[in-house]
Amino acid sequence: MEPITRKNSGKLVWLWRSLGSVRLAVVLLILLVIDLSLAYFSINGRSIIFEPMNQVGIWPWLNTYAMANLRYTAWFFIFLVLLSALVLNTLVCTTDRLWKLLRQRKEQKSNKRFFFALSTHTMHLGMVVILIGYLISYTMSQVYPSLTLIPQKETIVAGTNLRVKLTSMTLPIYEGKRLETFTGMVISPSVQLRVATPATERTASLGFNNPVYFQGYTFFLQRFSPTKNANMSNAHYIVIDVRRDPGVLFYFVGISFFLGGLLCYVIFWIRSRQPRRVPS
Amino acid sequence: MNRLVKTISLIVSVTFFLVACDDAEKTVKKAFLQIGEFTITKVNNDLTLIRDGAGRTLALAPREAPTPEGYEPHMIVRTPVKKVVAYGSFDVATLRVLGVLEETLVGVTSPKEKWFVDDVKNGMESGKIVYLGTSNAIDFERLKQQQPELVLTWDPSIIPMLNDLGIACVITSTPVAMCLNARMSFVKFLAPFFERQKEADEFFERVRSSLADIKERTAGMWPKPEVMWGDMYEKRVLVEPGNAWIGELIVLTQSGYLFEDVYGASCIEISMERFLYSGKDADIYFTYRTPQNGATSKAALAKLNPLMASIKPLGSEGKVYSPLPHYSQSGDKLDEIFTELSAIMHPDLYPGYELRYFQSLPETDPPKEINLHE
Predict the structure, then answer these.
(1) How far is residue B21's CA from residue A68's CA, in Å, rounded to a whole number?
(2) Would the CB atoms of A149 and B160 count as touching at under 8 Å?
(3) Cross-chain CB nearest to A233 (options B37, B70, B136)
(4) pLDDT band (50, 70, 90) for residue A78
(5) Taking the mean position of all CA atoms in its chain, how far away is CA A78?
């Protein structure tokens, strides 16, 4: 391995500074806007190419759906590269500035200025953690898609020791008058789900925006039947997706960082605008 | 000079990228095929993964191959499949295209008198093919007796029961209507189950060439007839959305489809106002009703639903077409159906064409003969 000489270290410093430069961030953001504008036209009406990414994960999706439809998915490959570069840029920039800030901490007498500066970096770090969470979700999630449940029949989630049972299902018909299109239709069913492992069990309500959490697994309602008062099919069933997503924790940590930073920023910004009291 | 070099290298890079994309696409398409929401992934000679219309993954393995690991027994299908039950008439038609209907079909959900396909009628007469009850009241005992290895259905509610019986099930419908390409290629999705890829390719090629012919014949046709496809029932109005194969085909035949902006499942519900509003501009109207269901004349349709009388095709200026009873079972004649639809849109381009799958409705029903002797 080549020893670090003064010449080499100069190159490294230059590389480090370039990676964390604001100019690079601006260029990357402009390129992202251009790429996402292309994405608008590529996705439009072709959601069936992109939707399976949620179920199969990013690497299998890139190897199959994306590669088979490159003219519509090329933007996504570019997007991944640009986003990775932006994460690297944010990380280097934040590390660099945080380091400087911490070194100057001893010399600074004002806590207000320190925390004000720190808050922006906390928000940046929060964003990086959220993006890492997304990467983990799309690479490491276990998804058990489209599990059909009929009332009172227990089903085993293949590949796990989970048992799921649809214990009750009521279908309230929309009776309002404001949304005429939904007259005679079920907008949201009332579903009770019992999930169990050999050791423990839980019964909970399941809805479209109300997933059930159990032992690290999340149960999402995908669709249900019948959806209408006078439906052609009278079959009663729900279809659920079961996911085990280790990225969720990162979202919460990232969002907490971001909100903490934002709160700090707002508080110190307001305080910095208040006129100083002059001692009488 | 420097700028010129940069421009040339940019053009070369972009060209190289596009060529590489095209090559990569072709390579991947050999192992992975997407047909609407269905997919086929050939992992190796002993394992092919398929994703059905409900998003479930099934493993196809030749009979002599080792059992694929990581799949429940009811998610493994041994190929070629020897016994199959089919709910939908399009699935049955697809089996016919693949040339396996006679030897593999053992159960259907329509009684014998509703079938127009000779192979099915003969099979039911001989007792090889069994009527299993209507789709919402299947006789599972009978189904079990038939010992199918695979059930092709649009109804996910039977999956838990079939899992218990250890029978593999494939959902052949999708939450969003099949586009034209998916409708034509669906045969390629079922082909690996029966190891009949060659037959599937031949059928696809036949339908593709009929489309090419339609495109060539109708190129530049003007004015474009405005078309609507759907029906008004007592409480509901159902139409074919613009993303469905019907909507796409109508546009391809140089015609205007009045529900092109509607997106969703086949037979999607829309408001009555929208149906009537579009009906004012329509030249041709396709009803879902067959003559047996009351579509015998324009006057008969207007009598069934007086509000519908206001749409233009029901007047003297427009045309109304009704599918003949065997139309829904003729999925193996997609090329002929496409051509017939094109001939309906542009009769001048198809002189002497005789309709086989649709009938043009007269203004009124012919007067009933009164038997004076009674």
Answers:
(1) 9
(2) yes
(3) B136
(4) very high
(5) 20
Mutation site, A51, A64, A221, interface B, largest B CB count within 10 A: A64
CATH of the domain at A226: 2.60.98.10
Tell me whether residue A164 is in a domain.
Answer: yes
Inter-chain touch B56–A145, beta carbons under 8 Å: yes
Q: Is the ipTM of this complex over 0.85?
A: no
| CB-based contact A48 B54, cutoff 8 Å | no
Q: What structural domains does chain B harbor? A: 31-195 (3.40.50.1980), 219-360 (3.40.50.1980)
Secondary structure (DSSP) of B144-160: HHH--SEEEES-GGGHH
B157 to A153: CB separation less than 8 angstroms, yes or no: no
Judge if A147 and A255 occupy the same domain.
Answer: no
Q: Which helix (H) or strand (E) holds A260?
A: helix A247-273
A178 and A40 share a domain?
A: no
* CA angle, residues A231, A234, A237, in degrees to nearest 5: 115
**A163 and A45, same structural domain?**
no
User: For B318-341, what is each residue's pLDDT tens digit?
Assistant: 999 999 999 999 999 999 999 999
Q: What is the mean pLDDT of chain A?
A: 89
pLDDT of A46: 86
CA of B57 vs chain A CAs: smallest distance (Å): 9
- Whether residues A158 and B75 touch (CB distance < 8 A) is answered with yes
* A134 and A34 together in one domain: yes
Classify B170 as helix, strand or coil. Answer: strand
Q: Find the domain containing A224 and state its range.
A: 143-244
A63 and A116 co-located in one domain: yes
- Nearest by Cα to B27 from A59, A49, A67: A67
Q: Decide if B155 and A233 are in contact by the 8 Å CB cutoff.
A: yes
In this complex, is the C-beta atom of A237 within 8 Å of any C-beta atom belonging to chain B? yes
Best to test chain B binding among A44, A62, A70, A152 (most B CBs inside 10 Å): A70
Min Cα distance A109 → chain B (Å) is 53
Q: Indicate the number of domains in chain A.
A: 2
pLDDT beyond 70 at B270: yes
Pair (A133, A36) in one structural domain: yes
Of A63, A68, A155, the CB nearest to B34: A68
Q: What share of chain A is helix, strand, coil (3-state, %, to 5)?
A: 55, 20, 25
Q: DSSP state, B311? A: S
Q: Are residues A228 and A209 in the same domain?
A: yes
Residues A183-237 have pLDDT tens digits of: 778 888 999 999 999 999 999 999 999 999 999 999 999 999 888 765 555 788 9
